[in-house]
Automatic annotation (TrEMBL):
Region (Disordered): 89-124
Keywords: Ribonucleoprotein, Ribosomal protein
GO cellular component terms, A-Z: ribonucleoprotein complex; ribosome
Identification of the protein by name: Large ribosomal subunit protein uL4m
InterPro entries linked: Ribosomal_uL4 (IPR002136), Ribosomal_uL4-like (IPR013005), Ribosomal_uL4_dom_sf (IPR023574)
Entry's family note: Belongs to the universal ribosomal protein uL4 family.
Pfam families, per the entry: Ribosomal_L4 (PF00573)
Length: 269
């Protein structure tokens, strides 16, 4: 018993001597920046490196938040216009088809009965709203979590300027873009690519028309993209302006000092 007490005393001395009185906890590992390479388009050559705050592109993967965001978008995308007629809404007479008793057949009312062809529909669908609610702060966090996931896997490619195909004949746009995608391993064999732009670039969108090019890549502008689009394809090629716009539109859960504009003002000083 004495040996146990003495060993415990020695351990307590070691623990107190290991950490001095002026010990301070290690810095927050999330207070860092995400270095992002800016590429030229359509050559995809590296041009420069820019930084984004860790609260925007270094978030940990949260499958629960992404799942809630995708379900929320799917619910609100449903039209809910399916409609059928109940027996009271079907046109026709209310006369009883046959007597209640004496025929040997089952009991039956008018011809608008749901049991008869051409009658009403029992418990059929009616127009309704399938939309659900999700807190705005949680939805904004889902946007940045999705981008952080693509960044962590190396599938987020940022391009400078506009993702536009210039100086190429209209008849050769699709062929040229397909060759570019296959050369950079962004085509159908590698999970396809989604181009995300600030506005509808005519050359790029024209090149991706048709079923054949749709198997290689798709293009969307910022106003027509959601969290599900950020996750579903193999590569995400986004304009730098479009990325900045998405990040600034989805940071309501952050304090003013953590937002992108304030962060860049501090880092550039």
């Amino acid at each position: 018993m004495r040996r146990i007490t003495t060993s415990l005393r020695q351990c307590s001395r070691l623990t107190t001597e290991t950490f001095p009185s002026s010990y301070s906890p290690p810095p927050n590992p999330f207070i860092t920046s995400a270095a992002t390479t800016i590429h030229a388009f359509p050559s995809f050559e590296p041009k420069s490196v820019t930084n984004y705050p860790s609260t925007h592109l270094l978030l940990p993967l949260r499958k629960d938040i992404l799942h809630r965001a995708v379900i929320y978008e799917g619910d609100n995308a449903r039209q809910g216009t399916a409609s059928t007629k109940w027996r009271s809404e079907v046109h026709g007479s209310g006369r009883k088809i046959r007597p209640q008793k004496g025929t040997g057949s089952a009991r039956l009312g008018d011809k608008k009965s749901p049991m008869l062809r051409g009658g009403g529909v029992a418990f059929g669908p009616k127009p309704r709203d399938f939309g659900t609610n999700l807190p705005a702060k949680l939805y904004d966090l889902a946007w940045r979590t999705a981008l952080s996931y693509r960044y962590a896997k190396g599938e987020l490619i940022v391009v400078e300027g506009e993702a536009e195909l210039e100086g190429i004949a209209e008849d050769h746009l699709s062929t040229y873009l397909k060759d570019v995608l296959q050369h950079n391993k962004m085509g159908h064999a590698n999970g396809r690519t989604m181009f995300l732009t600030c506005r509808r670039n005519e050359g790029l969108f024209e090149a991706l028309k048709g079923e054949k090019m749709g198997r290689e890549a798709i293009a969307k502008d910022v106003s027509h993209v959601d969290v599900k689009n950020l996750l579903e394809l193999g590569r995400l090629v986004v304009e730098q302006r479009a990325l900045d716009l998405i990040l600034t539109q989805h940071e309501s859960d952050l304090s003013p000092d953590q937002r992108l504009r304030k962060w860049r003002e501090r880092t550039t000083l």
